[in-house]
Write a structure and sequence with these properties.
single chain; about 350 residues; alpha+beta; 3 domains; 4-stranded antiparallel β-sheet; two-stranded antiparallel sheet; 10 helices; about 10% strand
């Protein structure tokens, strides 16, 4: 070989190493709605940015604690206070809104009290020096900022609203919420196949757009992994049935299709590192699907041209030969039956 014939191989190896670094260290997850339009001077993107700068709404995640026997005593209020503290410890830099930190303003004997709704020793909830649940319940019902927002009408669910800061990372927040709910650390590998939340506390429910979009992203990523695996598996079979060469089938699947997917994902990280707002989102499945389609087409044309030139002749697998022979026999039999039926109908018309 001529010395410059090695340059394509050297370039491919170097580019693969760069993409490997991009795959491992540079790729960042992106939410479904994060910078969906990459063109910075696009009028829709500019208008969206302007509206968000003027009307900066605050998103949140809602934790809902279910009480199957209803909230009915001091123990239940203590549970609300303890869970509020758990959220506060897990998300120390974010605001929380619940019964545990909402003030109950009451004027008693010309004295203004602002105790929290979970403060069972507060004088505003006591009768005969003891906590009275009926008084607490009536005061909750009379507060429109609490009933229907932080506690439902039949006192079976209490809500805890976690407020998110402006410019938060959607995927990062989603993962923090899931790990808090499941009370465990989740590995990076498991995130690729995780598509549901299973809280350790069976009475804990989670709501919010961040959680919904995170679950959609997780479910689609799991589907991407499964579909890519199936796509590569079936491409190996199709190549083998088409060319009769197992080695060429493996080369096409792993050194053309799989490598192109690896390069594509690595380039996402590299472009993001260079300042382009490109993240790995669910839409990437279209690029990976295109890698499979284009890889199959390229490999078929490449080996169809290479094999006759190199003098290599591969026989088709016996399975395909058997199917072809069976098809020919069936086709001949069907043709014979059709001709016989046609002859009988012609004789019947003449008689």
């Amino acid at each position: 070989m001529r010395k410059w014939d090695y340059w394509p191989l050297i370039f491919a190896v170097v580019f693969t190493l760069i993409c490997a670094y991009g795959n491992i260290f540079l790729v960042q997850k992106g939410g479904i709605l994060d910078n969906a339009i990459l063109k910075k001077d696009d009028p829709y993107r500019q208008m969206d940015k302007y509206v968000k700068s003027v009307f900066a709404g605050q998103e949140g995640v809602m934790f809902i604690l279910r009480f199957p026997g209803r909230i009915k005593n001091e123990k239940d209020l203590k549970s609300i206070e303890e869970f509020h503290q758990e959220i506060s410890d897990a998300f120390p830099n974010r605001g929380i809104h619940s019964l545990a930190n909402v003030s109950n303003y009451r004027d008693i004997n010309n004295t203004l009290y602002s105790d929290k709704y979970t403060d069972t020793i507060s004088i505003v909830f006591r009768r005969n020096n003891r906590f009275n649940f009926d008084i607490w319940k009536n005061q909750v019902k009379s507060d429109p900022g609490v009933l229907g927002i932080l506690i439902n009408q039949d006192f079976t669910h209490a809500a805890f609203i976690l407020y998110l800061e402006k410019g938060y990372d959607e995927i990062e927040v989603f993962r923090e919420v899931v790990q808090f709910s499941e009370k465990r650390e989740i590995s990076e590998l498991e995130w690729f196949i995780k598509s549901e939340i299973t809280p350790k506390n069976p009475n804990l429910l989670i709501s919010g757009w961040v959680v919904g979009r995170g679950l959609i992203d997780g479910a689609l990523n799991a589907d991407i992994l499964k579909m890519l695996t199936l796509g590569i598996f079936f491409s190996v079979l199709l190549f083998y049935f088409s060319t009769g060469s197992l080695s060429q089938s493996m080369i096409s699947a792993f050194f053309v299709i799989l490598l192109s997917i690896f390069w594509t994902r690595g380039e996402i990280g590299i472009f993001n590192f260079l300042g382009f707002e490109i993240r790995e989102r669910v839409y990437v499945i279209l690029a990976y699907t295109n890698c499979i389609v284009q890889g199959i087409s390229f490999s078929l044309h490449m080996f169809s041209s290479y094999n006759p030139f190199s003098g290599k002749i591969f026989t088709k697998p016996l399975f395909l030969e058997g199917m072809r022979n069976s098809w020919e026999i069936c086709s001949r039999r069907n043709n014979s039956i059709a001709k016989y039926v046609e002859l009988c109908s012609t004789l019947k018309q003449r008689t």
